[in-house]
Amino acid sequence: MTPEQIILVQSSFERLGPDLPAMTALFYQELFQRDPSLRPLFTTEMGEQRVKFAQKLTEIVQTMPRLGELLTHTRALGARHAGYGVRAADYRTVGDSLIAALAGVLGEEFDTATREAWELAFNIVAETMLEGAAAARPISS
Amino acid sequence: MTLPRWPIVGRRPELEVFERALGSGERAGLAIYGRAGVGKTRLADECAGQAAASGHPTERVAGSRTTALLPLGAVVALLPDGPGQLGSDGQVNTVALFEQARQALHDRHRGRRLVTVADDMAQIDPASLALLGYLAARRAIFLVATVRTGEPVPDLLTDLWRDGRLERIDLHDLSRAHVDTLLHLALGGPIEAGAGQEFWAASRGNPLYLRELVLGALQSGALVDRSGVWHLEDPLPATSRLLDLVEQRIGGLPPEARSVVELLALCQPVELSYLETAAPPGVLELLERAGLVTITVDDGQVRLAHPLHAKVVRAGMPRLRVRAVLLAQAERLAAASPAPSPAELRIAVWRLDAGGRPDPAVLIRGAHLARSAHDFRTVRRLMEAVPSGQLDAVGALLLGEALYELGAFDESERVLALGQDLPSSEQIALQLAVTRAKNAQWGLCQPEKALAINAAARAVVTSAPLAEELVADEASVLTFSGHPDRALVVLGRTAGGGRRTRVVRAIAGAVALAAAGRTAEAVALAQAGYADHVALGDEPGIAHPAMHVVNQVFALAEAGRLAEAEQVARAGAEIVAAQRVPIAQIWFAVNFGRVAILQGRVVTARRFYAEAAGLCQSSRFAGSRRVALSGLALAHAMLGETDPVTRALVERAAAPAFGFLGPEQRLADGWAASAARQPAEAAEALRSAAADAASTGYRVTESWLLHDLMRTGGEDVSGRLRELADECDSPLVSARARHAAAAQARDAGELTGAADDFEALGAMLLAAEAAGEAAAASSRAGDRRAAAASLRRSSALAAACEGAATPGLFHLATVNASPAAPLSGREREIVLLAVTGMASKDIAERLYLSVRTVNNHLQHAYAKLGVTSRAALAQALGSAI
Asked: How far is CA A62 from CA A10, A13, B376, in A?
């Protein structure tokens, strides 16, 4: 990422402000619409799930400029998700849903440069989560 | 040099295919197909690594030229007793041998399949392939085979595939996002936009090339870490390993095809119509089929498919051959396109590359074409090839400007001074003078010299419009050497002149007006200047059009219109990053930093100033670097990071003095002393800087310095701030004055009003400080309710300040009863909400935490503060405010 892209991700996230819960709700709506089969993976009550998601996302966005710290978060998070049965293809769906939710809430402010920055940031997070997942998941045969 | 890690990126879906195949039991193996360098071997090894991590036994077999000659040479590792004995018929009984091997593997691994990587199937001898097939079919091994695109696929794989027992992966180059991800993870941090673009352009997503390019650039010192951001300061080098890799790809080509590749490497793009007549029939088809060239249908041009091939082929060609090809092509193109034509640039470069001495007229015309594309490296190459006796004034202008843009300031000065002695039109003489003055000002950091150059030019100029421009230019030197007041006086002497003069006047005037507190005029002038500049076009001797946008950001910040400033800066910064205009990139970063400091986003400010400092270093602008490092030290100081403050100030001491924003630079000294708990030094630094600001016309800066004198030392500055507020049209200056007066009077209502003003401007840190003082004032007046409300507000505002640790926020820190165990930021935040009577559940909702987490934090805070209940907590806090 370029330093400008990191700032773009952080400042657009900050601009969500009080709309963060709305964005989170929209995210899950997008996600289940894109792939209803993901619904059963979520066993937690959805209200609590949304709060947890917003919290994690906030943490990740805040640590974006400090790669070492970010990796500690994302690898552990990935390892946990491997246990839930999440696969690489699902990350794509999640990424697309997140981008759609951000675009939905931020409207015109979510311009091309901001979208690209988010896509790259998500890619970094997804790749390192998958790295953590791979380390945690045994192959059975 | 080695990289700390080179992670596997963009291959997780493929790894999952492997996992499923291995886990299913129905598959006997996996085949990975793809071009050279796409990462087949890496993926195969990663598969084996994952299998090993889950407890599978693994083995690796690979063919080579030697083992290919030896039956079973590649798979010796799978044969428990070597390649077997000759039977009575003088032959090896392969069936018995294979079965023996299977049994031995079965016993050794207790029935688990041995995950066997067979790298590069084309190099493995037929007997070895037969054994692999036998073992895979009988579940003794799980085969992971790599096959290079275009090479024969062994029967073993086709057989398994037909039986539905083989999984297949076609591996492709990485996408741009994956390349950027890989760079980020491998380098461990962000990379400057232009550098990322170059790695992408050179590698086109080929992971092996990318890795070699990164390693080569690290080794040669072209890729360097400047304050946490990676910069590319020299062109990417072609390492011998890269030469090798590319040679493997094109090594087997017949000579006719090789010559076409060489021709393209030197002169691409080349017209298809020409190549069709120059190359024997079939050659182009061969190259296209091998994926080595691409033909664009709409413009009929042929190029090498991979940009790196051109670079490497070029580097590997004998000198004489290069010369022959280039000269022949230059002749051909010159005959086909009579001068003047856009082809002249290519012709001139080719002749130069061939070691020839092109006609100076052609070189100069070529340099003009390169200049119009902002390709200053080529301008420099072409113009330095002109024999010095034949360099005319226009040539000196072109060369001098290119040298300035490339950071060669001393050489630029020499060439431009020489150019001024050559006969020229008055127009060119003027451009030489202003370019030389610009170099003296920004490059050499010698404003007196710049003023002298300007004065000398004014003394001889006869044309009235040109004289006007020189006056505007004098104002520009004054503005950017730290004299906005004198610049405004000079600007008052000029009104006429053409569009070019208006553009120069806008650059000098917008900043000087903003500094003087006439911010509305400043914003309007920056906007008008930009429009004029776009209409004028790009001309030598004037700054880049984006500098008007930089100035607009500066003016908006001085006006306290912080959100707008941020927005305009973002739009502008994107444009100049894409075009790679270092000076504009630097000043966008500096202004981003300023705006962030004013907003109270200190970590963001720190990052922007660090970026600006890095950019200054790579483009050699030492004076601008001084401004950036001052900002960096300021941000560190406001975060309470004392060691980094010292480091930034030591680095700054090595930079030459630079008058632009001079008084503002000294905010760093004041805050550094304050962070080091030296209040007297802090006050002295800020007071003397404010006096300098007053005497040079930096009114808005003066209000900033005085206000900070109050913030760090509690000094009464309300009188002078009131005067400044009356002189300036900036609500930011007015809010500072209101704050100072209210603080002096300890007027809770007015302090709250000041907090409102700051918050409305987006100056969250100042708002948090004012609200905190309002809390203290209310508390003193006995109004506990109002005190708690202000305290809560202050805490909420401080949460937006990214960990700022200014004296004005100490009231929040005093909540920490024991300095040995200070409250964490989160604890403080929760305590301040709890003390207002908010229930844990509501706090949890507000902060996106679980109720349990909130209660945990509270318990920790109780322990640290030595209290056991909320009531006691409120008491402890009540005494603190």
From this structure: 7, 10, 39
